[in-house]
Amino acid sequence: MAKSTWKAYFLWLTGGLFGLHHFYLGRDRHAFTWFSTLGGVFGLGWLREFTRIPAYVREANQEKEYVEKRFLEMRTRQRPPYNATRVAGELIMGTLFGYLLSLAIPSAEEHEVWNRWASLLVPFAVATGVHLVGNIGMECGKFRWPLLGAYLAAPFFAYNPNSVAYSAVAAAFLFNWRSRDYVRQPKTGLRKRFLYRVSVLSTCGILYLSLWGSFLWFNAKFTSRDGTTTTFREGVDNFLHSKAWLDLKKTLIYSWDYMQHYGWQRVLNEFWESMDTHGESRAMDILGLDSDATQQDMTTRYRKLSREWHPDRHRDPVAKEAAQKMFIEVAQAYEKLSTIRANRAKAGRKSRSDSRDEL
């Protein structure tokens, strides 16, 4: 089925930061790249694609003019033209994957053997990022060249804090020098089954997010204002034992039990009332009344506060201004409560009248 430009733009606008439009167009590698970098380095690539989507649609549909132009280019060139944006993407993804894996590995003090062997996979992660971007669209290349470049550079910069970035440079250089080529046959991304594509991308996404999870659990730290350093794990444990969480947990359990007994509708109604969207609770607080106060109680309290906060009782300009503000708030609170009570009484009378009519 031919792909639609307006659908691609709609998906670009609604889910473009996560690569949804690329998935629609069969560009699964591009979709995962956007998912990993939140729209190509926090939305920069996403914005750039505003003018490129029509070309992506022509590529996905393999339109006649597009195919003829592409074959003409392949006959006149042995290799695709150099693209600085693509190379920059290779460097970014290679560096991102390399650093992410190195951050996700537990420290040697905690898991010495695992740290030693897992560190050998960092160049592999770098090569994966370079190869991923290098194979987006109608260009391709073999994995062995960026892999070779990443591992060749790793020993030379083993003790350099920028070793991952240097490995990415070497991997991208070898990939573009020795392996970059045209895709000679149309990719099968659109012809693959939907569930297969979703399962592959989901697996890659889970693996990517698990690396971030490993980093947070094993190596993430934060420092308080007084200079105290706490690991993420300790922070989570402290939070789970904090009074705020225990109170919230108790409230959630109570709400669940309440819902099981009375149903969702009553829970939602009480929640909506607790939000005080009509301002009844705030008005009660201003007048200093309880929820069971009668209309007579409200009137008595209003008259007392009106006399207390009347501006004419205050001579100091600052106190007079504060009293004026409070006087207005008291009047508004009384008016609001009176209106709410009147409407509530009216609704009650109407309900009783309807009940008598039914009888």
UniProtKB/TrEMBL annotation:
Query: Which keywords are on file for this protein?
Result: Membrane, Transmembrane, Transmembrane helix
Q: Which stretches are transmembrane? A: 7-25, 31-48, 87-105, 150-174, 194-218
The record's listing under Pfam families reads:
DnaJ, TM2
UniProt keyword Oxidoreductase, yes or no = no
The topology of this chain with respect to the membrane is: Multi-pass membrane protein
Any one annotated GO CC term:
membrane
Q: Which residues form the J domain?
A: 282-351
Which InterPro entries does the UniProt entry name for this protein? Answer: DnaJ_domain, J_dom_sf, TM2
**Location(s), subcellular:** Membrane
- Which SMART domains does the annotation name? DnaJ (SM00271)
The UniProt record lists the keyword Transmembrane helix: yes
- Free-text function comment from the UniProt entry: May function as a co-chaperone.
What protein am I looking at? DnaJ homolog subfamily C member 22
